[in-house]
């Protein structure tokens, strides 16, 4: 009989510093249909995309494996997931898993940093529930975002954990392919997955987690070298998500071997040690917005990108922060673009005024008091779009992005992209879809921490990380942790370090 796998995607990255909760409707937006997908709607929506499920589908096809995707949803990163939303989606997943009957493996496409009201480690809870239905003998292969806060409970319930290597996450598709490849060898009895896991007493912030430079590049090269050693199936580094204030937040490593617990433990120890030794290289430099404007005015050579990581919707930010926009308008910087301000009210008002109209709007700053006040601006409506385009960057290429009603609103030398939906502008195709060639701008301010580098790194002359306030500010000075375990560096500079860790081996 042909080998058959069941797959499910249930993802959220929870920023516990965001006050607005994540509700079941938010998960409906990220699903192929209102029922969180059926096997055919999931294949239709994900096949041909550079996503985990895109990789699952292609790899299964090439192995001649039959795949049954039973659920697919990913809500935009945001606040704590409501208990009822979680119960409904998890309940649907478990019911469909039971209905699907026996299989040769379950592939779970999870994020790894979902926090639910009353459940800190939602993925640990999901994998354990899947294990209960699937039984001890059915392999469970879990893919995770590199911002997963991996826990011992997750490592115990899963057979294999495969994290993204890259940040920007340009290797989602490859990790999906890898998951199926490994599951096929396990189903064939060629590999007996043996997983070791270790948590480090360490939090890091996004800008230095970028994987095309050190310290991350060298750490990844170490993991890749391990994966080429005989007996090693996968080596995963999770940089963790510091905006989830939970006991287990932070960096961890996991290594899967073929039936060699001692090798897995040794490799995990080597990776953990290398990461710990690099801990001081993760400190982030932020630049005041006025210094960046000075730089643009003085040098005027090539595109400068200003990353407003503090208001990154990809980590829970509202994407309606006005701090940078205000500074640009006050100095009337020429050739500047702000991508984006997620403000449904302003986008719709400008769209209904129509192309060519001059309107006065209270722009942005409407979600909370942390990202600057609404900014009254009079400007010109240059272009109105439905905000939909096919992504072209390596992250998710082929997927349709949907920003909702989108308006290019021009205020002096500054053009503001107003959007209906809260989405991270990490693909430069957004600007091109609106008639803006990014390389011809002097300054582009992006509501993105690192993902934008997948399409902007090569066209930007300089990139600065903005010193702005917000729920995704990449500095520890902005947060008070109350649930995080004690002794975590750099919050506790006198962290006892690795030797003091209980070994979270699973
Ligand atoms: Zn991530």
In short:
This protein is of the alpha/beta class. 29% of the residues lie in helices and 22% in strands. It folds into two domains: 4-282, 3-Layer(aba) Sandwich (Rossmann fold); 289-474, no CATH class.
Q: Can you offer a commentary on this structure?
A:
The structure is a single chain. Helices cover 29% and strands 22% of the residues. The protein is globular. Strand 4, helix 6 (152-157) and strand 5 form a beta-alpha-beta unit. The chain has an eight-stranded mixed sheet, covered by helices on one side. A five-stranded parallel sheet has the order 2-1-3-4-5, sandwiched between helices. With 506 residues, the chain is α/β, with parallel strands linked by helices. The chain has 14 helices and 18 strands. It folds into two domains: 4-282, Rossmann fold; 289-474, no CATH class. 57% of the residues are buried. It binds zinc ion. Zinc ion binds next to loops.
Give structural attributes.
single chain, 506 residues, alpha/beta, Rossmann fold, eight-stranded mixed beta sheet, five-stranded parallel beta sheet, 14 helices, 18 strands, 29% helix, globular, binds zinc ion
